[in-house]
Amino acid sequence: MSIATLILGQSGTGKSTSLRNLNPQHVLLIQVIKKPLPFRSADWTYITPENKQGSVLVSDNPQFIINVINGSKRPIIIIDDFQYVMANEFMRRSAERSFDKFTEIGRNAWDVFNGAIGAHDHKRVYILSHTEEDNQGKTKIKTIGKMLDEKITLEGMVTICLQTSVINDQYVFQTKNNGTSTVKAPMGLFSEDHIDNDLNEVDVAICEFYGIPNPQIKPQNQQQQTA
User: Fold this and answer.
1) Phi-psi category of 226—alpha, beta or left, where left has phi over 0 and alpha has psi -120 to 50?
2) Which residue, 78, 73, 72, is CA-closest to 41?
3) How far apart are CA 224 and CA 227, in angstroms?
4) Which CATH architecture has domain 3-226?
5) Distance (Å, rounded) from C-alpha 61 to C-alpha 183?
6) Domain residues of the chain, as ranges?
7) How many C-beta atoms lie closer than 10 Å to residue 20's C-beta?
8) 133-176 pLDDT, tens digit each
9) How far is CA 87 from CA 2, 83, 112, 122, 219, in A?
10) Is residue 79 within 8 Å of 125, Cβ to Cβ?
11) Alpha carbons 67 and 49: distance in angstroms, whole number
């Protein structure tokens, strides 16, 4: 079972920027919407027939995303702008009057989450998505409407859900639930209520917590030798 983590936040609050310190050789980034990364990213290149060693693919097709999660040998998979998997399909099918489309869109989102949590044991899947407020004022993942929310709580399918925040001009991840969000993390994973919005550091912490091999983590005896 892989480790799926939700990274939620409004646009411009540091979700995509959190990728800046990851090694793209260890990452496969699936952009649901093709757009430039918000940091210097010369090493983050698109996978093409001529450049199979790239790190970025573009797709909003749920089955393609699931196939990539299962088929890639890279330890880190990132899905950026996940909400557009649902929104793009909704817009393409906006002329349909049947409510069946909502059920099908919800099923596709559920399938992607199942793919994210059911991959290889050492794989980490990070799902970056926008937020919205429900009728009770709680911040949650943005979906395509009440019909999906009544059937599925996407945050309930993962163990780790972080949320971006900007505090005193600092871009951070919230790690503790304040009663108005869906933020959660296992006990002991993070000691602070807010951490830097650095997905590399989050990945290192997750690997250490769950005992997952990570080339960016030095073995304990090597750390002692170089200390």
Assistant:
1) alpha
2) 78
3) 5
4) 3-Layer(aba) Sandwich (3.40)
5) 27
6) 3-226
7) 17
8) 988 888 999 998 776 778 888 999 999 999 999 999 999 999 99
9) 26, 6, 14, 30, 43
10) yes
11) 18
